[in-house]
Hints:
The protein is mainly alpha-helical. The protein has helices at about 5-10, 10-25, 30-45, 60-70, 75-95, 120-130, 135-150, 155-160, 190-200, 220-240, 250-260, 265-275, 280-285, 290-310; strands spanning about 170, 170-175, 185. The chain contains 14 helices and 3 strands. A hairpin with a 2-residue loop joins β1 (about 170) and β2 (about 170-175).
Amino acid sequence: MKTEKQYSGRDLLAYMDSRCKMLEKNRRSGTAGIYRSTRNRLKSFINSSSLPFKEVTLRFMRDFESSMRLANLSPNSQCTYLSCLRTVYNSAVSDRLAPKDSNPFSHIRFSPKRTDKATIDVDALKKIALCDLDGEGELSFARDLFIFSFMTCGIPFVDLAYLTTANLVDGFLVYYRRKTNIRISIRLSKGMSALLNKYSGKGVGDYLFPILKKADPSYTEYKSSLRTYNRRLCRIGNRLDLPVKLTSYVARHAWAMEAKRLHTPLGIIGESLGHTSEKTTRFYLSSLDQMVLDKANMQVIRSLDNIVRRSR
Length: 312
C-alpha cells in the first residue's frame, strides 16, 4: 500500500491534494479549503494537472505573482495564496520531495494590507439587545447568539456552534479554540446563563445551541449554518440602520475594541481572544490569573449583561 509521501511523488499539485486529504481527516476543513483554492489557482495558471517541484523556481513564482496582479486579485488574496504555497513547499522539503538547496520564495514579498475592521460600540449593542423581535424566532435566535458571542469575549462562530454541555464546568464556559487550540475559560455571568437556559435542550445531541442540524455535520453543512446566521444578522443590522454590516465577526471585534477603550492591557485582550501571534500576548499566557480575565470581561460586558438578564 502506498504511503502519503509515495502517493504525492515529486509533483506539487499531487502533493497539495494529499495535504488537503490529511487536513480533512484531521477536521481542519477551513485550512483544507485554502489549500484547495490555492491549488486550483496554480493549476489554472500553468494550464496543466501536473507541476514537478523542480519547475517551481524563483522565476516561476514571480510569474505566478504577476498573473495574480493582472487578474486584479486583492493584495491580501495574493498574500494568502503565496503564503500557502510557501508552507506547502517547505513541508515538501521536509518530506524530501522538493529540493532543499533552492528557495523559490526568497525574493517574494509577503505584504498583506491592514483593513479597516467593522465594529460597533456598546450603544449599538444595546440597541441590538433591546430590538423588538417578538414573533421573529429566527432573527431573535441570531440576535441572542450575537450577544452571547460578545459576552463570551467574542467567541468565534465555529467554536460557538460546536459548544456542548461538556463545555460547562463548575460555573465556567471552557473550550479549546479550533483555530489555535488555545484553552479558553470564561466565568458565566447571569446574562450568559439566561441565554443558555433559554436554549437548553433545543440543540441536537449535547449542543448548547440549535445551530447545527446534525451531531456530526460536514464542513459544507457548517458553512451553510454560518451563511444563514450572517444573513439574519444583516437583516437585523439593516433594520436598526447600523453603521456597519452586521456579521458574526463584528461581535468579536466589538469586544476587543470595547476592552481597548476601557484600557484593558493588550495581554489580557489577547489571552481572552485566544491569540497566539502577539509576543506580548504570549508573554502573558503563562502568568495571567483567571480572576484577572474574569474581572476584565465583566467590565466590558456589565451593562449589556444587565439588559440580557432582565429581558431574557
